[in-house]
């Protein structure tokens, strides 16, 4: 069983979670402008409670986006620094996938449409389905689209979806016309959380999907932002 630390600062929610010997420890706080102040103390608190050091872990997972450009950059940079210092491989985890995993953990949902408000009249959205291993798996691709485009893309009267995230809450009126067999809201899931990244990270680590620090990149979905790697890392 792998020991993994996960952290996420991609949205208003700031979180860190640790899986050690099958036990999960979580720190979480909604603080839109305080991620840089809160995330490292969260990590220190988790490691202290578990009685381990970073170098004792097998891998470090992080929310690679989509989400706030600034938040995704902060999370990626801090995760890179921690992993580089402890010589750990990294596991980039989709924030939308983490939300989908949360829908399964809390509501036993198996077919979901997590959506994050992308600002500028757009929404980050994707469809996820539960696989045989109990991990939410992407169907097609992650998108950044308008509410009208979401309706056009997922207008499936023969299919039922669970909905979750700030994208649905922000554009509730426009999305109310979506014609599907059934839409069920997953209460209490507005943001991704590191807790739900752990299950995905464990599966990815077991399947050899960990990457080196220099290859752990953010995913913005929008193509208008570039990312610089750590200095001296190529």
From TrEMBL:
Transmembrane segments: none
Start and end residues of each Gcp-like domain: 32-174
Source superkingdom: Bacteria
Cellular compartments per GO CC: cytosol
Major subcellular site: cytoplasm
Protein family (similarity comment): Belongs to the KAE1 / TsaD family. TsaB subfamily.
Protein name: tRNA threonylcarbamoyladenosine biosynthesis protein TsaB
Native organism: Moritella marina ATCC 15381
Lineage: Bacteria, Pseudomonadati, Pseudomonadota, Gammaproteobacteria, Alteromonadales
